[in-house]
Amino acid sequence: NAGVMQNPRHLVRRRGQEARLRCSPMKGHSHVYWYRQLPEEGLKFMVYLQKENIIDESGMPKERFSAEFPKEGPSILRIQQVVRGDSAAYFCASSPYSAGRETQYFGPGTRLLVL
Amino acid sequence: DAKTTQPNSMESNEEEPVHLPCNHSTISGTDYIHWYRQLPSQGPEYVIHGLTSNVNNRMASLAIAEDRKSSTLILHRATLRDAAVYYCILRDVLETSGSRLTFGEGTQLTVNP
Predict the structure, then answer these.
(1) Cα–Cα distance between B39 and B111 in angstroms, integer?
(2) What pLDDT score does A98 carry?
(3) Whole-number Å distance between alpha carbons of B31 and B90
(4) Which of B35, B101, B108 to mutate to test the interface with A (most CBs of A within 10 A)?
(5) CB B104 to CB A55 under 8 A?
(6) Mean pLDDT, range B37-61, rounded to an integer
(7) Which tens digits make up the pLDDT trace of A83-92?
């Protein structure tokens, strides 16, 4: 059973470009979470999605960031018009259920560098 | 999520036991205690979780105080591969917000050869 997969692992963008980060959850998992880790900082929750639904986006910046988890295919975190402050590691996690006792399984992350 | 307090850093020697403490004095009755760790340049990894009773798995043991206001993650024989940041996290099973993990600063564990 493959783990959570994220691609690309590294992404370089110039200011103003768009970044698309993909996350394929573990097989059988229908709950996806995105977290961001800024340099020298802790992990921060961004958004929680189920198939075709955003459940909690309280951690998402209000502008330029969006996330989706379509019925088919991976979850996508999209950052429009990137700025240098978006440089960070973005981690995706998945779980089979949403209950507070469920383990979240993390991917290896996408490291975004904005030049 | 209820707040947890952990030491910023701890050091251990290889093959010795490590006890990583966590204080959570404001824990509620429906909060589970979870531990995750993050190895350098990797995503977080689940370690163990519990509610009231002590728990054991292949990675570690979790000792929970009787009043649940503190817990201790125990690595029975530290290896160099256990060097990581360890996070103690409370998750409320009754709240939708309990679905997210709220990471604090964690404890940076250094293992000396």
Answers:
(1) 12
(2) 66
(3) 6
(4) B101
(5) no
(6) 94
(7) 999 999 999 9
A39 part of contact set with chain B, CB < 8 Å: no
Report which of B24, B18, B28 is spatially closest to residue B4, judged by C-alpha positions: B24
What are the tens digits of pLDDT across the range A22-56?
A: 999 999 898 999 999 998 888 999 999 998 899 99
Residue B88 tokens read as 């103690």
Q: Contact A40/A88 with Cβ under 8 angstroms?
A: no
Report chain A's C-alpha Rg in angstroms: 13
- Which of A62, A64, A30, A63 minimizes the C-alpha distance to A48? A30
Band of the pLDDT at A97, cuts 50, 70, 90? confident
Residue A104 is nearest to which of B46, B94, B95, comparing CB atoms?
A: B46
Residue A32 CA to residue A36 CA, distance in Å, equals 14
Number of H helices, E strands in chain B: 0, 9
